[in-house]
Amino acid sequence: GRDNMPVSHDGEDGQAIDQTDNGRSSLHLGRPPSVRDLFKVMSRIANSVVFERQTGYATENQRTICLAETMDVFAAACPDVKSRRIFVRDFAAPAWSLTVDAAVQSLESRIPAIDQHDGFVHIGRVGLPTSQDEVQIDSGTYACTAYTIRMMESIGVCIRENEPVLLVGETGGGKTSILQQLARISGHELVVQNLSLQTDSTDILGGFRPLEIHHVARGVYQDF
């Protein structure tokens, strides 16, 4: 009946929030979630967390990692901090049995550790293969803040899971610098392709160019 229908009102930031009859909020975080997102979260958790066999207990650190994977999949596309905090409060933190304060602290103040061993460079919860014998974190020209390290960690998980990544932001906001720093500390070459309104598909995929046969034959004739 009508009493069971969700009602809509504006959140603190003016973004639409659906309030259901149980008092919980259903945010619109940029796009509707799908079953594919759920499978993606499960795949990430399976590759990030090693649970003890034959037990249903998960440590707080393991649940914190699960929280981070959940937020990256479902809420990373939302640019509004207040909306993400509402999602943490009403959905993500209760789902992993974490307090809201602990969840927000982990997501917004945690500084992932960066180290290297066994042929991998580890950035927080993700390890990427590297050919470097020693990781040089401080390049002298790039400031590794808590935010940029967390961003490199999130991008690193996408690389490990072979997921495409789209970084959105103002010009000069540090999108390219984060990728350059991630490539540097992991010992990988970064291939850069600058795009513009004049960029054509052949600039990326390549193509065939028609040639007159006598132009090719002239070079062969001159060589021999």
From TrEMBL:
Q: Does the keyword Lipoprotein apply?
A: no
Question: What are the transmembrane regions?
Answer: none
Q: What is this protein called?
A: Midasin AAA lid domain-containing protein
This chain's source organism reads: Entomoneis paludosa
Please state every residue range assigned to the domain named Midasin AAA lid.
Answer: 27-89
Supply the alphabetized keyword list.
Answer: ATP-binding, Nucleotide-binding
A GO BP term, please? ribosomal large subunit export from nucleus
Q: Name one GO molecular function term.
A: ATP binding
One GO cellular component term noted in the UniProt record for this chain: preribosome, large subunit precursor
Name the domain of life this protein comes from.
Eukaryota
